[in-house]
Amino acid sequence: MDDQPIAVMEKNDSTAPEASQSVMQKSIRGSTLLLVGRLVMLGLNFGVQVLTVRYLTKNDFGAFSYALSFVAMAAIASLFGLDKAIARFAPIYHEQKDYPRMFGTILLALFSIIVLGVVVIGGVFLLQGAIIKYLGGDPLSVSLLLILIAMAPIQALETYFQDMLAVFARPRAIFFRRYIIGPALKLAAVLVVVILKGSVEMLAAGYLIGSLLGLVLYAAIMLKVLRSMGLLEHFHLNTLIFPMREIFGFSIPLLTTDLMHILKSSAVVLMLEYFRTNVDVAEFRAVVPVAGLNLVVMQSFKLLYTPMSARLFARNDRAGINALYWQTATWIALFSFPVFVVTFSLAEPLTVMLFGERYANSALILTLLSLGNYFNAALGFNAYTLRVYGRVKYIVAIDVISAVANLGANLLLIPRYGALGAAVGTTLTMILLNLLNHAGLMLGTGINLFQRRYIMVYASIAAAAIGLLAFVEIFHPHIVVGGLLAGLAGLALLRINRTALDIEHMFPEILRLPLVRPLLGVTRAS
Fold first, then answer.
1. What's 81-145 look like in SS3?
2. Is the distance from CB of 69 to CB of 265 less than 8 angstroms?
3. Is there a domain that residue 195 lies in?
4. Pick from 160, 202, 205, 409: CA 20 to 30 A from residue 398's CA?
């Protein structure tokens, strides 16, 4: 680690392999449950996206997207990087049974997020004139922002509770609250507005009410988990230790990572509105969720990856972290592949089918963003592993380099090319950041980058992608045919790489289902 005074447990050679295998299995199984939940959420959110885009005018949707992008930035500011600190320090303290510091970390993060959220809300109301003047927001955008800005601390607290549930390995609780209740509330808000033929301001109010109800439920679930684990018995106010130096010493430098996220998502929208129009914002934002489908598997796995790898780090089990890293990267790359093929190779018919001919110009934007997102997902959790190892200085350095590159590229491209320029700048930055993070694994973690079993996985993915792309370019199949081919190619890749996935050990019960064994090429003897 760079500067983090965390005591690391001595590794017990007799139990470490079994323990790391148990951690890996728990991570993969729990993450797969979260993947199922995320797919449900995507179906609901996709309905919300399509309904919203089709119901609102382009100008209203652009203004609504602007306000939501600003709220996303404000939520990141309210978090202050504390989500990363929680995911790393809370499981380490829990593993070491250091309950005073564990609860101190939990409460320190909670109160900090609340205070920062209040400051953010007050700042937006005080500076609304400056937002119109200097940040490109028109009166409608700012009017919506004043309604939605209360969602910033709510979203930050939702992330906080989600990370806490991941720390204590409660994927079922996350599944229920994040992937079922949250999206359902959002869909209900949109349906009410459509049925009542309401305004975009009514939609903003519905979003806010739904978020507040979801937060109350999150808090209740978290309290129930702590009670069921018997952890509240170790909570004593007079023994609490608030590790401020460790927490803020880790989270503040990593605000550069949040800056990169802002530049990649929200800031690019603000620049589009400033240099161009609401129409450019709409063309870019309409396909961002579609391109984001390439990150679905990765986002499902990341919730448990950091706390699980942090526990292995606390045990000084470097081999276990290496195995967990590549096992999760393999699952992510293979299960994300069909989505990549559809959103990359079939971007034009997919865009027109979802949003209509008026969004045909967004097809190339979808192609570029899909490429960047899949590249980011397929290489695994390199940035998260660097955080677990405490390589703060390296992370900050590459974040700064990437932020400067992103800002320069977008300032150069957006004024001239609009939404397409934003897609090019964003994609190039995603690829650059990921390559730099991966280089960091080689320099400072001991993660093995050249194991043959994993090289074969990526080689087969590349071959399948090139073959499908060539087929699409030559024959121009209907999107239904293309989607079917993508699914068949994904199934073939699963069969070829079943050994690397280790499905027999991760999910032995799934092999009892009809047709699963022959589809995956698994014999009973194996």
1. CHHHHHHHHHHHHHHCCCHHHHHHHHHHHHHHHHHHHHHHHHHHHHCHHHHHHHCCCCHHHHHHH
2. yes
3. yes
4. 160
466: alpha, beta or left? (left if phi > 0; alpha if psi -120 to 50): alpha
Instruction: Please check whether residues 395 and 370 belong to one and the same domain.
Output: yes
Kindly report the backbone phi and psi dihedral angles of residue 113, in degrees, each rounded to the nearest multiple of 5, phi listed first.
-65, -40
Within this chain, do residues 248 and 347 fall inside the same structural domain, yes or no? no
φ and ψ at 502, to 5 degrees?
60, 45
Our CA angle for 221, 225, 228, nearest 5°, is 135
| pLDDT category of residue 377 using cuts at 50, 70 and 90 | very high
Residues 336 and 469 placed together within one structural domain of the fold: yes
Cβ within 8 Å of residue 312, ≥6 positions away: 20, 23, 320, 321, 324
Angle between helix 392-417 and helix 419-444 axes, rounded to 10 deg: 160
Residues 241, 298 share a domain: no
Range of the domain at 187: 30-252
Residue 422 resides in a domain: yes
Instruction: Report residue 442's pLDDT band, with 50, 70 and 90 as the boundaries.
Output: confident
Backbone phi and psi for residue 381, each to the nearest 5 degrees, phi listed first: -90, 60
Which 3 state secondary structure label does DSSP give 169?
coil
Q: How far is CA 232 from CA 99, 110, 239, in A?
A: 10, 16, 13
Local structure of 231: helix, strand or coil: helix
Mean pLDDT, all residues of the chain: 82
Pair of tokens at residue 404: 């400067």
pTM, two decimals, is 0.70
> What are the residue ranges of helices labelled H in 177-295?
182-196, 200-228, 244-251, 255-264, 266-275, 278-291
The H-assigned helical ranges of 389-477 are 392-417, 419-444, 452-475
Give CA–CA dist 303/407, Å, rounded. 29
Other CB atoms within 10 A of residue 508 CB = 9
d(CA 250, CA 390): 8
Neighbour-count burial for 80-103, b at 16+ CB within 10 Å, e otherwise: bbbbbbbbbbbbbbbbbebbbbbb
Question: Domain boundary residue among 252, 283, 309?
Answer: 252
Looking at 252, 278, 312, the residue that finishes a domain is 252
Q: How confident is the model at residue 319 (pLDDT cuts 50, 70, 90)?
A: confident
Q: How many structural domains is the chain composed of?
A: 2
